[in-house]
Give the backbone structure.
Amino acid sequence: MPHGTDDRYALSFTTGGLLAREAAVLAPVYGELRDWAKVRDAAVGENLLQTRTHSTGVRRVRETVNRLSVLSDRELEILADVTASERGHLMWAAACRRYELIGEFAEEVLRERFLTLASTVSYEDYDSFYRAKAMWHEELDDLTDLSYKKLRQVLFKMMVEAGLVTKQGAIEPVLLSTRVTDCLTERSPSDIRFFPTRTV
């Protein structure tokens, strides 16, 4: 769907990757404090993510909080107790909600290719998707080549970490657990649309 130029894509997802490990650390802190600003302050102040430098810590905490803040209370509650694979799925959904560009790629390219029985997703698929979006979003045209490649690299890294794609680009059909499925289908349209799965 065409967007006006005022509806710009947020493109600040180059920190870290999926941030599933970080999410497991910070979600319970939110459970105690119920305030994202306090979570951010506590996480940075106590170096809860155990980063080597303060600036890296600030960036990682900020980005993890940005993504966690789009999850429901139920999703945040189960985040610390779920398996690594479920956590990866929830954090992929969080990235898709937080960043429209990732969500659209997940739905229009990753899931679409899976449903049409394509077995892989490649940098070329991303490039043609990106070029099509750039026709409506001038901010995509404004990226330097380096930034463009970094965004693409991080997006594919996130898909690998979430167990959706292998390092070689083969699409991995996803089996979502019942509790993750319940969370994703609470939204309308269902966030299962972000995953390579036949479940609707």
Remarks:
- Residues 1-6 have pLDDT under 50 and may be disordered.
- The radius of gyration is 17 Å.
